[in-house]
Amino acid sequence: MEQNLADFKIIGISIESTNEGGQSIEDMGKLWGQFYSDGISDKIPNKTSNEVYSLFTDYESDYTGKYTAIIGHKVESLRKIPEGLVGREFKGGKYIKLTAKGEMPDAIVKIWKKVWKDDEKLKRRYTVDFEVYGEKSQNGAESEVDVFIATE
C-alpha cells in the first residue's frame, strides 16, 4: 500500500553495516542488544510515541552496498541529542507499506528478502527505509511490524 509520509526526526543509536555475507543480521542483533541493555529508549527526550524505529539510510549504492542503521524513536525536536546518540531528520515522500507477520526477527528477514528480490519493480529511492515496532511487535508468532520502503 502506497502512502505519503511527512518529514520526521529520529534520535537513537547507529551502526554502519552491509547485507553482504549476512553481516547485517549480526550487526543488527548487536545494535538491538545495545538499545535494550543500555536503556537507550529512556535516554531519548521529546519522543512522539513509544514505537521503536529501525531505519536504514546513507546507502552507498543499493541493498548490496554499505548503509547506516539507526534504532531509536521519532522525536519532536533535535535540539537535545544526548551524548553517544545520533539525531537525524529525514524527508518524507512516497513509501510502500508492508507488514511483517509472525515470529521476529524471522518475519522481518523474510520481508527484506522479498523487497530485495523485487528491488527493480519497487523503484526504490534508497533514501531511508524503516521498520516500526509498536504494540503488536512482541506477540510471538502473532507479531506484526510495519516496514516502509521509500519509492519514486
Summarize the structure.
With 152 residues, the protein is of the alpha+beta class. Helices cover 23% and strands 38% of the residues. It contains 4 helices and 8 strands.
Distance between the termini: 14 Å
Strand order of the largest sheet: 1-6-8-7-3-4-2-5
What is the averaged pLDDT score? Answer: 96
Q: Uncertain spans, ≥5 residues at pLDDT below 50?
A: none
The helix content is: 10-25%
Oligomer: single chain
The helix-and-strand class reads alpha+beta
Instruction: Please count the beta strands (DSSP E, at least 2 residues each).
Output: 8
Strand content: 35-45%
Number of helices: 4
**Shape, please?**
globular
Order of helices and strands: EEHHEEEEHHEE
How does the major sheet shape up? 8 strands, antiparallel
Radius of gyration from the CA trace? 15 Å
